[in-house]
Design goal:
This protein has a domain at about 1-40. The chain contains 9 helices and no strands. The protein has helices at about 1-15, 15-25, 30-40, 40-75, 95-115, 125-145, 155-180, 180-185, 190-215. The protein is globular, with a radius of gyration of 23 Å.
Length: about 230
């Protein structure tokens, strides 16, 4: 909150009270635009402006590109159709997985632009990662306290304390994120995407389990392995 206050103070100082107030009322001001005005240099302002656009695109592109490896891995484990793990001999890349991911990403960006006039509204989906880390911490704490994994007493105590602290930190950040969506960028498009991802994941598992059980394959065994990440 202190950093936000200092940021707004800097914008008012560099742009003036009247301009900053009017710009904020119309939703056109942010830290990037404040830096452009404060730079006092046209060339530098252009670099900052272009950089702000590339920044948001890079974050979304990273998320879009990374998800392909999950499609690839799930296809190998027979949770998804086999064509997702097809690698083009010429391009050396899982082209079908990339095309599928491209289509989903384009749809989400279009929805974000239509509903909220900015694709950065999808950043609200980060709350699921916060909740995920809180759940991982809870699972680790339970495993350490109940001695589900064979560790020395000192290691178990360290793991339990660190895990409980992790739950506390991630739980608090998740609460802040959900309690103040206007500050952190939370919206129902982003929340809907994450809720749908969980529901679709559960549905895919049970459908794949049913299909493969008819072939004599028990895909539940893959969860007895330690995942790559």
């Amino acid at each position: 909150m202190i950093m936000v206050t200092l940021g707004f103070a800097a914008m008012y100082y560099s742009m003036g009270f009247k301009f900053s107030t009017m710009a904020m009322t119309n939703g056109y001001i942010n830290f990037w635009s404040a830096a452009m005005v404060a730079s006092g240099n046209a060339a530098l302002a252009w670099i900052i402006g272009v950089g702000s656009v590339l920044w948001y695109l890079a974050v979304l592109a990273y998320g879009a590109i990374v998800i392909v490896r999950y499609l690839f891995a799930l296809s190998f484990d027979r949770l998804l159709p086999e064509f997702f793990s097809y690698v083009s001999p010429r391009l050396k890349s899982p082209v079908y997985a990339h095309l599928f991911d491209l289509a989903i990403t384009a749809i989400l960006i279009a929805a974000a632009e239509a509903l909220y006039n900015t694709f950065s509204s999808l950043y609200g989906a980060v709350v699921e990662a916060l909740i995920y880390f809180a759940l991982v911490g809870a699972a680790a704490a339970i495993a350490a306290i109940l001695n589900r994994i064979k560790l020395s007493k000192g290691v178990r105590v360290t793991l339990a304390v660190a895990s409980i602290l992790m739950v506390g930190v991630m739980g608090y950040i998740s609460y802040q994120f959900l309690e103040y969506p206007s500050i952190w960028g939370g919206n129902w498009l982003a929340y809907g995407v994450e809720i749908a991802a969980v529901l679709v994941g559960v549905a895919i598992y049970f459908v794949a389990k049913h299909i493969n059980s008819r072939k004599g394959l028990d895909i539940s065994l893959i969860f007895m392995e330690i995942p790559p990440e």
